[in-house]
Amino acid sequence: MRVAFTAVPDSHLPSVDELLSIAVSALGGSERQGQVTMVQAVQQAIDDEKHVAVQAGTGTGKSLAYLVPSIRHAMDSDSPVVISTATIALQRQLVDRDLPRLSEALAKELPHEPTFAILKGRRNYLCRYKATAGWPEEDEQDQLFDPREVSATGRMVQRIQEWADETETGDRDELVPGVSEQAWRQFSVSAQECLGASRCPSGPECFAELARQRAGEVDVVVTNHALLAIDAMGDLPVLPEHEVVVVDEAHELVDRVTSVVTAELSEASVMLAVRRVGRLIEQPLADQLMEAGEDLKALLAAAPPGRIDEMPQVLGLTLQLVRDTAWRCVSALGPRNADKDDPDKAGQRKAAFTALDDVHDTAVRMLEAYGHDSETDRAEVVWLDGGTDRRPPALRVAPLSVSGMLRDKLFGERTVVLTSATLALGGTFDALAAQWGLGDGGKDWHGLDVGSPFDHPRAGILYVAKHLPQPGRDGLPQQYLDEIAELIEAAGGRTLGLFSSMRAAKAATEALRERLDVPLLCQGDDSTMLLVKQFAEDEPTCLFGTLSLWQGVDVPGPSLRLVIIDRVPFPRPDDPLTSARQRHVAAKGGNGFMAVAANHAALLLAQGVGRLLRSQDDKGVIAVLDPRLATARYSGFLLGSLPPFWRTTDPAIPRAALKRLAAEGT
């Protein structure tokens, strides 16, 4: 049941402009034109039942701009609005700060104080039934050979057990410090493994079900892109019924959805199925599945990692053996609802079915990825991940595009608002719209850039080191290290170094620590959160790192005056999925490089550049060491994806600007 109230006709509700004005005044802010434009655009999209993509630069106040019309729609329609984010940090910001303050500010203007809740995937909640059933047999083997790991995991398990007696939500994120996946999985179940609230002895007090119940009673449900995809594409709804979705951090949507629908097959996944089916079927049949898993293990250990364009005969036969043996085990288990009156046996059977279905269905997908007449008919790509010392090799399969899924399952059923600081690549929304499946049937949509409150040409310099050699594959050239050192010395530290690989970040750190007089931190020295905190609190400190820093750092003020980017962040040429997508686009007559690699680079480059200006008083320099940003034929596209900073290729200009800022102490 949702919160009961008497529905107020639309004409009796304040307009979004009025609500925004009230909210901004109550929260002590000032009106920003971009925010006003965005709130009107979101309301118009909801009224017209048309999708809208809104690019809103840092400082626009986009959270408020979509929350106000979302709350108004929830009040007017008695239907919740779903807000989806890519990161836990933004979820927490919405639930812990933005929504409580906004709800209080608008309470007197609306039929009731707006309500909200956060909803995550089932694996994020402690399973009360599993917590009382002891350590699952199938996981013991994971720890037999490393006593230190057993000890560390055991301590985490003990901490979870103590926390389980105290927690009111069962939400894993409440556990601080966090615990390993190995420890947490002893206390959680996937949606496929869950017995269901009606059959589980702990059903009435299930944390995941209580979270879903709360989500069904509120005006705004905050979730993540993965759960949004599972809800849209699954057979059973996970989220409460809703008409409107707001996708924040929408530049991440395609990658997060792709992760959800990517499947993996390895000797470990087959052996998990063998252990779970255990004594539930005749031993000779379980042994056959184990032998199929051993054959797969031997084959993957000998094969070279990378994309598999044509199915080798031996791999095809091995996948058929895994598929058929897993299916025989499924058949041997009998009816899926057997033992429904015995929770322990029902839980064992559900876990066995889940593991077997995963193995069988993934093998089927991989076999069906081949045999097409032409490259344009191919829908999925299969590759071998070579693994690491701690992770064995695994086969993976992923779709070449998720646009059709999104068009049919997400955009076809509801009104969607997509927003981010970075959506217009090369100056248009076309690239991301194509990846989302917009414009190809379905509802109408339009893109809108509401700008930024920052005066980019006055606040920042975009310097491209045109005189440097192009980056190579053999690490950072000495000229790059010299350039980095001179820029940092001019800035007096205060530098965020964004590198295309962890190897490059570590190499730069090692080479420059002795050379520079300022503290130099590198991602991996400690938790990223603590490193960013230390960087923000000590002005001379520099921080070097890779991908998570490109998008996850928010350090306003004088601690950050220089952002260094070592190279244009193209995907690796040997990345199986992106290279397959490039080839697929080219086979259809398109430009695979521009549609995939350049779009990827533009998106990440814009995110990295966006680290510099985080507040109205921020100033500084972005230094891109890769000369291709000034000289390559695609440089105009990349530059057109960035904010309008003042641009230069003269090395003296950024150094002089940084020295002035350092001398002024700003």
UniProtKB/TrEMBL annotation:
Family annotation (SUPFAM superfamilies): P-loop containing nucleoside triphosphate hydrolases
GO BP: any one term: nucleobase-containing compound metabolic process
The protein's required cofactors: [4Fe-4S] cluster
SMART domains: DEXDc (SM00487), HELICc2 (SM00491)
Protein keywords: ATP-binding, Helicase, Hydrolase, Nucleotide-binding
Pfam families: DEAD (PF00270), Helicase_C_2 (PF13307)
InterPro entries linked: ATP-dep_Helicase_C, DEAD/DEAH_box_helicase_dom, DinG/Rad3-like, Helic_SF1/SF2_ATP-bd_DinG/Rad3, Helicase_ATP-bd, P-loop_NTPase
Reaction catalyzed: ATP + H2O = ADP + phosphate + H(+)
EC number from the UniProt entry: 5.6.2.3
Domain Helicase ATP-binding: 21-293
GO molecular function, one term: hydrolase activity, acting on acid anhydrides, in phosphorus-containing anhydrides
Family: Belongs to the helicase family. DinG subfamily.
PANTHER family in UniProt: DNA REPAIR DEAD HELICASE RAD3/XP-D SUBFAMILY MEMBER, REGULATOR OF TELOMERE ELONGATION HELICASE 1
Protein's recorded name: ATP-dependent helicase DinG
Native organism: Nonomuraea solani
